[in-house]
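Can't paste images in this forum, so I'm doing it all in text. The chain is below; anyone willing to post the predicted structure tokens underneath?
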Amino acid sequence: HADAAYVIMECLRFDRTTAAQGLLRIDQGRTHHIAIRHSEFAGDNVTLPAGQQVNLNALTVTTEFVHDVVVYNVHIHDIGDYTAGAAENDRIGVKPIAKCNNLWVVDSLIHHMGGDGLSGGDATTADASRCHHIYYCRNTLHTNHENCIDIKRVNDIVISENLCHTIVSTASSSGEGIVLHDGTTRPWVLFNTIRDTYIGISS
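Text version of the structure:
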């Protein structure tokens, strides 16, 4: 709904789906103050189509931004093919793509994904549509086909106190725990624990 506001979704389980855009999509430009908490997003490792499992992507035809979204204590797992020999399949836990600000993802567990655990932006995101003021904190991310956290063309992001582990190099990733690229500006990477990755942090 284009005017969804002050919505709480909690204690829900989202199982695998054939929808091309993942399990939950928030993408209307007047959407704000949304809480997603104490919930589970579950797949079977292979059959989900490409697309983010929590997709925070405001429609690019509007000048308004999705804003003030909290993802708290969610478990996202086994979506896409995470194995090292798999082809790129880009199943991502949480990804604000464009026109999203004031997003928190905290105290969540994301693992065995076909892409990244947490992401943000795309290499082609226009400057005027960049997501900004994002906070990823105290999450545990591991055993993904790509990275724990992969940020592209995002402004003002804090990545703090996350545990990232068990990431290997694959055909579509160099195996970073945390990677910042494509002109990300003013990132803060603080107090994270990164272990058993091919590369720790890459900028």
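The longest strand covers residues 66-72. The chain has no helices and 21 strands.
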